[in-house]
Amino acid sequence: MKSPLANFEADVIIIGAGAGGGSAAWRLSHYGFKVLVLDAGPSYSPSDYRQSSHTWEKPFPYKTASKSAYEVAELQPIHELKNELRSWNKMKGLLVKGSRRANFGYHHVRGVGGSSLHFTGEAHRLNPDSMQMKTQHGVAADWPMGYKELEPYYQTAEERVGVAGPLSDTRCPRSAKYPQPPHPYSFAAKVLDKAAIRVGHQPQANSLAVLSKPYDNRPACNYCGGCQRGCMLTDKGSIDVTYLKHALASGNCQILPETEVLKLETHHGRISSILASHKGKLHKLSAQWIILAAGAVQTPRLLLNSKNAHYPHGIGNQNGQVGQNFMETLLTTVSAEHPEKLGSHRGLPVNWVSWKYNAPDSIPGVIGGCRFGPSMSESDLVGPVAYATRVIPGWGLKHKARMREQLGKVLSITSIGECLPHKKSYISLSDQLDQHGIPVPRIHSYLDQNAMARLAFMNAECRKILDAAGCDSPFETFSSADAFSSTHVFGTCRMGTDPRQSVCDAFGSVHDIKNLFICDASLFPSTGGGESPGLTIQALAIRSADYIRTLN
Q1: Cα–Cα distances in Å, from 401 out to 299, 388, 394, 398?
Q2: For residues 477 and 428, what is the distance between their CA atoms, to the nearest angstrom?
Q3: Residues of the chain with pLDDT under 70
Q4: Which helix (H) or strand (E) element contains residue 289?
């Protein structure tokens, strides 16, 4: 069978079909550019997420090649960590048994749609105050553009995926209302909402790339709560059923899954070709523009592995910035049982969000903010298997009767916070090789005292909300303090105005490489106070695509 790359022609090659690659592909293909999107992972269809009454608790259906290889370096000691920051469960005891932070994994999906395939749909704009962390607070780095420059691209992204949001939102100024009305709260979310208000929060409907009304030939959400297991109905705005669907419809876009880019090659300050493996065969491909959108772990890996005589330390790494400033998901989750049956295993995940402590200076004595929201689904406390293994001990008929009585009583609150760059947090290359004989990325993670203080505040506030809801004492706590466990990762090729301190400019254009752009969260100079990064990645990528159009 003839390879689809045999007669390859494209103006733009995009490496990675997630939030950045998909949104750039949509914008450029509708401008008339011929776009080829390559992704190392497989493609998914809605039928892949089909579940029955016997299988609905199964996790996301990972396929062969839908996880990338990586390694995590030895993590920091935790023997002096306070007990309230430890991860534990009343049935299992401490979840981290050793004397160092444990590696619970970098949680991602490699495939057409990227990690949006299993996200809960959160679609947040970044707090404008979080874009000036260096100037205002002396930490991290400033974004090389302001919120006003990014705002119209946020609006475009929200309209493309169909974001449902609150009727008023004063945290981030808006030029237009959300495309979709907010979702109703589940009964359990209402209980937690009232509790949060009692302890001084002002929760609002979360902004979600999940349809509250039919939109773009997609149905409204049925509130099954299975967002993280993949959305069979397509109401969730994952990249494959939004941006990439419309990119393909333009007639100017081709997507090749299970095609891994192994190396970038340069000539006279440009990417002259890329080396890609497709179905066991190597192909050398060229295009006028190359967009790298493989994420904050794999993007620096590819740049570092592409070193040559002109770039002996890796492409874009003349000043040693590639892989530096790695920032991870900083979170704490507290779960407890409520005395009443609330049906907490049902409903849309993360109905509401509290931004009270989102601003960088909002937590007393700590730099960097955070946010709070319900998290029963994200904590996977939505079915009898989870209850039997984490909530209700025992066996036999008495245990079965108690399970029936207790199912739906668990409430969880999660807080996600700012993660600031640290010299001990970065991505390097491992001695471990992948199936192509190429070094895999090595993740180095370190949390300083400022991060630990933020986690302590987040933990205490989660407990306050559950206590105000009338819950019993918590039965489980999970914390980044003693475990690396990241979904959102940032910052390893950050953008800036000074090439000595950054890898890219404000449009994601790699310094000194004329035709290479980066469009993923590795660009972020700061993480924000708990915002989900997907919408910001999309807005930045659409902005970069508009810039590329001016250069053509």
Answers
A1: 51, 12, 11, 5
A2: 31
A3: 1-8, 52-53
A4: strand 289-292
Name the pairing type of β-strands 204-205 and 102-106: unpaired
Q: How far apart are CA 421 and CA 160, in angstroms?
A: 32
Beta bridge mates, 509:
517
Residues facing 289 on adjacent strands? 12
Residue in 418, 404, 384 with CA at minimum distance from that of residue 491: 418
The encoded tokens of residue 397 equal: 């008929």
Contact call for residues 317 and 429 (beta carbons, < 8 A): no
- Residues present in the chain in total: 552
Strand partners, 471: none
Beta bridge partners of 88: 94, 477
- Grouping H, G, I as helix, E, B as strand and the rest as coil, residue 444 is strand
Q: Residue 62's CB: how many other CB atoms inside 10 A?
A: 15
Q: Which two tokens stand for residue 59?
A: 């996790």
Strands 330-337 and 476-479: antiparallel
Phi, psi of 281 (to 5 degrees): -115, 145
Each residue's pLDDT tens digit, 403-423? 999 999 999 999 999 999 999
Question: Residue 116 burial by CB count (10 A; 0-12/13-18/19+): exposed, middle or buried?
Answer: buried
Measured CA angle at 37 (ends 32, 40), to 5 deg: 175
Q: What is the pLDDT of residue 513?
A: 96
Could you give the maximum distance between any two Cα atoms of the chain, in Å? Answer: 74
Radius of gyration of the chain measured on its C-alpha atoms:
23
* pTM of the predicted model over 0.90: yes
What does the alpha-carbon distance between residue 494 and residue 502 come to, in Å, rounded to a whole number? Answer: 5
| Tokens 């060229």 belong to residue | 286
For the 12-49+62-551 domain, the top CATH level (class) is alpha beta
CB atoms inside a 10 Å sphere around CB 484: 22
Strand order in 476-479's β-sheet?
93-94, 88-89, 476-479, 330-337, 410-417, 370-374
Give the torsion sign (CA, 425, 428, 434, 436). Answer: positive
33-63 tens-digit pLDDT: 999 999 999 999 998 988 766 777 888 999 9
Report the C-alpha gap between 412 and 373 in whole angstroms: 9
